[in-house]
């Protein structure tokens, strides 16, 4: 069985209905939905009542994406084989559950795939075309949370999201990178399949603050300080086209490295 964790602030009900409709159309019905609700509780619960597949919901008074995911992980069924981390505005092709359970039947690591935007017929980001049976720490930095499927065996080791990172915190991104780093460091294997497994609208980057905000802290969480400073500079070069003031962005990231404590 696949457990699908869906945190929501309750402010994207149309998109969430598209997500739930796509789950109702799955070829394989061996899944459950765990919805961590952080706002608009009544409307979200009323939407969930429309569907016949298994749903667990919890109401959270504290906000934060990583916090919501960690709370939802406590409710994963003992019968689950894999867990995935959905957004409330993504949706799935009909084969998703079937394919994940097929590939993960005799595997207790982590699977990752591709995200595709069918409305503009483009991939969410650049992907490699070849299968990778052992995704490295470096390559895991490019993995997005909604394309990850984690075996229940890994969850049972106690790996969790660092609640200092993710939307709703001072460091609004990078939580999935930390999560995968921790999984790899525990000795688990991540396999990448060049297959579309989830749909999501492709983001348009226009000098978004969070492209740089929190990245210094992220590198300090993942690496030792000297390497973190090096990563800040490499990242700044890679993302310079999105910056309104690159000097200021680098300075802020360096300050985050300096002040962050693991």
Describe the structure in your own words.
The chain is of the alpha/beta class and 262 residues long. The protein folds into two domains: 2-199, Spore Coat Polysaccharide Biosynthesis Protein SpsA, Chain A (Alpha-Beta Complex), CATH 3.90.550.10; 209-259, no CATH class. 35% of the residues lie in helices and 18% in strands. It contains ten helices and eight strands. The chain has helices spanning 13-24, 41-48, 65-73, 96-103, 137-140, 152-155, 175-185, 215-222, 225-238, 246-259, and strands at residues 2-8, 31-37, 55-59, 82-85, 110-117, 122-123, 148-151, 190-199. The chain is globular and about 55 Å long. The protein starts with a strand and ends with a helix.
What's this entry about, in short?
With 262 residues, the chain is α/β, with parallel strands linked by helices. It has helices at 13-24, 41-48, 65-73, 96-103, 137-140, 152-155, 175-185, 215-222, 225-238, 246-259; strands at residues 2-8, 31-37, 55-59, 82-85, 110-117, 122-123, 148-151, 190-199.
């Amino acid at each position: 069985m696949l457990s699908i964790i869906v945190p929501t602030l309750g402010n994207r009900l149309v998109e969430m209905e598209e997500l739930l409709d796509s789950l109702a159309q799955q070829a394989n019905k061996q899944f459950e939905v765990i919805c961590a609700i952080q706002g608009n509780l009544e409307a979200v619960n009323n939407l969930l009542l429309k569907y016949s597949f298994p749903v667990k919901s919890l109401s959270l008074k504290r906000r934060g994406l990583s916090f919501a995911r960690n709370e939802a992980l406590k409710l994963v069924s003992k019968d689950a084989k894999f867990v995935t981390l959905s957004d409330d505005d993504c949706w799935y092709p009909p084969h998703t559950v079937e394919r994940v359970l097929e590939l993960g039947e005799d595997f207790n690591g982590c699977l990752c795939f591709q995200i595709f935007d069918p409305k503009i017929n483009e991939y969410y980001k650049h992907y490699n075309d070849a299968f990778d049976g052992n995704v490295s720490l470096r390559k895991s930095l490019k993995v997005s949370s909604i394309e990850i499927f984690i075996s229940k065996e890994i969850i049972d080791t106690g790996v969790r999201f660092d609640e200092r990172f993710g939307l709703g915190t001072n460091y609004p991104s990078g939580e999935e990178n930390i999560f995968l780093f921790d999984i790899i460091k525990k000795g688990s294997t991540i396999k990448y399949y060049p297959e579309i497994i989830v749909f999501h609208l492709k983001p348009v980057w226009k000098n978004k603050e969070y492209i740089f905000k929190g990245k210094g802290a992220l590198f300090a969480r993942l690496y030792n300080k000297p390497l973190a400073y090096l990563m800040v500079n490499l990242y700044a070069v890679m993302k310079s086209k999105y910056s309104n003031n690159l000097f200021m962005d680098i300075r802020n990231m360096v300050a985050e490295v300096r002040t962050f404590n693991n």
